[in-house]
Amino acid sequence: MSIKPIKKVNVSEEVFNQMTELLSKGEWKQGEKIPSENVLAEMFCVSRVTVRQALQKLNVLGLIETRLGEGSFVKVIEPGDSMNGIIPTMYLSENAISQIFEFREIIEVQAAKLATRRATKQDLAELKDIVEHMKSVSGNLQEFAKADMDFHIKIGQMTHNDLIVKTYEILRVALQEPMSDIVLKTGYGTGIHYHSNLLKTIESGDEQASMDLMHEHMNNNVKVYRLIKEEKKNAL
């Protein structure tokens, strides 16, 4: 194990940096028990307090977990697990929602491509059910906006890519209110138009058509949201 004695003044930070390097290089593997505080203190040539501080930071970051009576273990992390922390950070930004819509323009176009390529019969049946539900709740703003997001969540699931699926779950939380604003501005027919036609392109297996239509749909949403934002700003 390539641990080096600490010589710098900021000892705690240096210990933490070396530990994260051991994790990133895979010298401490996922699920593996790491050395005890005493052993680490001897290896780093620092106090147990310094080691404990570094371990606490790793715990907070979700990189290791401490089990009572057993010690500390490298946490097994699945794709997207660490992304949950993105949402509170985004809410601190004044332009957060605008940035999310721009992000959607990028990710949803490629997701439509993968969904078209990988869709199963069950996927297509569920996507069709969502479109039919959208039509049935037309006129109910909250239910329609929820069904709108359900459609896009399903597109994400149809990629069968865990990281994309997790990303869509995060987007759902951040976009609940903005989606209602967009439906209110554009009307129910716009959403039904785009989602019905996306269902058709995906069913036909035409990846390019799905990408083009999703790009148009997302671009339209961005423009509408910016207009809504400007109107709210002028109303103040």
Q: How would you explain this protein's 3D organization?
A:
This protein has about 240 residues and is mainly α. It folds into 2 domains: about 10-75, Winged helix-like DNA-binding domain superfamily/Winged helix DNA-binding domain (Arc Repressor Mutant, subunit A), CATH 1.10.10; about 80-235, Up-down Bundle (Four Helix Bundle (Hemerythrin (Met), subunit A)). The chain contains 10 helices and 2 strands; from the N terminus they run αααββααααααα. It has helices at about 10-25, 35-45, 50-60, 85-90, 95-120, 120-135, 140-160, 160-185, 190-205, 205-235, and strands spanning about 65, 70-75. The chain has a two-stranded antiparallel sheet with strand order 1-2. α5 packs across α8 and α5 runs antiparallel to α10 (about 205-235). The chain starts with 10 loop residues before the first helix and ends with a helix.
Biggest sheet strand line-up: 1-2
The poorly predicted ranges are 88-92
Helical content (DSSP H or I, runs of 4+): over 70%
Assign the CATH topology of the largest domain.
Four Helix Bundle (Hemerythrin (Met), subunit A)
Strand content: under 5%
Task: Provide the gyration radius in Å.
Answer: 24 Å
Average pLDDT confidence is 86
Indicate the structural class: mainly alpha
What is the makeup of the main sheet?
A: 2 strands, antiparallel
Q: Note the quaternary state here.
A: single chain
Number of domains: 2
Shape: elongated
SSE string, helix = H, strand = E? HHHEEHHHHHHH
What's the name of the CATH homologous superfamily of the largest domain? Answer: GntR ligand-binding domain-like
**CA distance, first residue to last residue:** 61 Å
Count of individual helical segments: 10
Total beta strand runs: 2
